[in-house]
């Protein structure tokens, strides 16, 4: 394949507060990791799929990944993550095969991100040669606050929420990770810090990140409505 998708699933899910690491928590009977991988394998571009998992969950991640992959099982790798998300992405990047020219990085926690979002990001990376992030407009009014006192209203006309999968030309992403000196909040920020240009594609509301118990309820409800 000329595409690799790194699915980072090595976090502990502190804010979700369940016994299992977050990617191994079920939403309506199917783990968050498996739901994310189902979309990756439903996307139309064949990919090397790299799952980055907690040390204690490598075997479980492998069986989930093989089940999601079905006939594409040969394209799956499972590797151990690191202490930060950035370290986990770096561990995944280290296993990208020669011949891959485009890399997507996806949070397993965005369990309901649809396959078409992956396709949209891949297409945009390949047509622009830039970093690509899914984005949605900020709809709430945003205030600047100091010591609990409102100091002003932020103009939100040029603000967006960003999601994953984020996509990059492989060589430029490898370089950005090799020289990264600090922890960045997302892969696009790390890529920009190395001089890479990043553009947006339209995000998808379903690509919200499951972070808190409320988010888990929301995911259950979305599935309940769409699948009956
Ligand atoms: N992640 C990872 N390795 C880490 C930390 C995070 O692979 N050391 C992954 C998570 O598994 C998740 C994604 O990065 O899919 C986004 O991180 P987040 O939502 O913050 O997940 P957690 O770090 O697990 O949650 P929390 O911060 O609440 O502990
Ligand atoms: Mg975290």
Automatic annotation (TrEMBL):
Keywords: Isoprene biosynthesis, Lyase, Metal-binding, Multifunctional enzyme, Nucleotidyltransferase, Transferase. Pathway: Isoprenoid biosynthesis; isopentenyl diphosphate biosynthesis via DXP pathway; isopentenyl diphosphate from 1-deoxy-D-xylulose 5-phosphate: step 2/6; Isoprenoid biosynthesis; isopentenyl diphosphate biosynthesis via DXP pathway; isopentenyl diphosphate from 1-deoxy-D-xylulose 5-phosphate: step 4/6. The record marks 156, 209 as: Positions MEP for the nucleophilic attack. GO terms for molecular function: 2-C-methyl-D-erythritol 2,4-cyclodiphosphate synthase activity; 2-C-methyl-D-erythritol 4-phosphate cytidylyltransferase activity; metal ion binding. The record marks 15, 22 as: Transition state stabilizer. Its cofactor is a divalent metal cation. It catalyses: 4-CDP-2-C-methyl-D-erythritol 2-phosphate = 2-C-methyl-D-erythritol 2,4-cyclic diphosphate + CMP; 2-C-methyl-D-erythritol 4-phosphate + CTP + H(+) = 4-CDP-2-C-methyl-D-erythritol + diphosphate. Residues 1-228 are annotated as: 2-C-methyl-D-erythritol 4-phosphate cytidylyltransferase. Its EC number is 2.7.7.60, 4.6.1.12. GO terms for biological process: isopentenyl diphosphate biosynthetic process, methylerythritol 4-phosphate pathway; terpenoid biosynthetic process. Bifunctional enzyme that catalyzes the formation of 4-diphosphocytidyl-2-C-methyl-D-erythritol from CTP and 2-C-methyl-D-erythritol 4-phosphate (MEP) (IspD), and catalyzes the conversion of 4-diphosphocytidyl-2-C-methyl-D-erythritol 2-phosphate (CDP-ME2P) to 2-C-methyl-D-erythritol 2,4-cyclodiphosphate (ME-CPP) with a corresponding release of cytidine 5-monophosphate (CMP) (IspF). In the C-terminal section; belongs to the IspF family. This is Bifunctional enzyme IspD/IspF. The chain holds residues 5 to 232 of 385 of the full protein.
